[in-house]
Amino acid sequence: MADMPTLLRFEQGVIQAERPFDPTLQDNTIHYYDIEQMITASHIELLVAEQNQQLIGSGYARIESAKPYLKHKQYAYLGFMYVDPAFRGLGVNQKIMKSLEEWVVLQGIAELRLDVYDNNVSALKAYQKSGFAKHLVNMRKALL
Questions:
Q1: Taking a C-beta distance cutoff of 8 angstroms, is the pair 76, 111 a contact?
Q2: Burial of residue 2 (number of CB atoms within 10 Å: 0-12, 13-18, 19+)
Q3: Residues linked to residue 76 through DSSP beta bridges, in sequence order
Q4: Could you count the other beta carbons within 10 Å of the beta carbon of residue 129?
Q5: DSSP 3-state assignment of 80?
Q6: What is residue 53's DSSP assignment?
Q7: How many angstroms separate the CA atoms of 85 and 133, rounded?
Q8: In principle, which of 42, 43, 93, 132 could form an S-S bond with 63, CB 3.0–4.6 Å?
Q9: Strand pairing class (112-113; 74-83)
């Protein structure tokens, strides 16, 4: 909980990075996550990366129930993937994702999912490098 100010800053970093890709986000200050719940919930693993006792990255895996028609009963959803700009390109995100994947496997879960904006080429490349593949495209149409 002592890291809450930094985690809230990371959350705003995620939102700032995603705003150019999502015209539906409100213009004011918004929050995606209940970080306190992510820290305390047993079905969520929140990880941080640190260097010299400074938080430099974050990510979480959240166990979800799958749709009843899918082959798997549960999956893990990854989110809150953030690396401080000064530490990008050093493999921090890959290490966080690998650690989350290990936690997910220990939970007996065999499916990982995440959302990424289709125009976010750098994020797509990073996730593909970790073994993710595009699966479904979510489309929208503004009417007013």
A1: yes
A2: exposed
A3: 63, 112
A4: 12
A5: strand
A6: T
A7: 25
A8: 43
A9: parallel
Q: What's the alpha-carbon Rg for the chain, to the nearest Å?
A: 16
Consecutive H or E run containing 5: helix 4-18
Token pair listed for 93:
């995100």
Question: Could you read off the pLDDT of 92-130 as tens digits, one per residue?
Answer: 999 999 999 999 999 999 999 999 999 999 999 999 999
| Burial class, 26, CB count within 10 angstroms (exposed 0-12 / middle 13-18 / buried 19+) | exposed
Decide: 81 and 38 in contact? Cβ < 8 Å: no
44 vs 64: CA distance, rounded Å = 9
What pLDDT digit, counting tens, does each position of 38-88 carry? Answer: 999 999 999 999 999 999 999 999 999 999 999 999 999 999 999 999 999
* Residue 85 burial (CB count, 10 A): 10
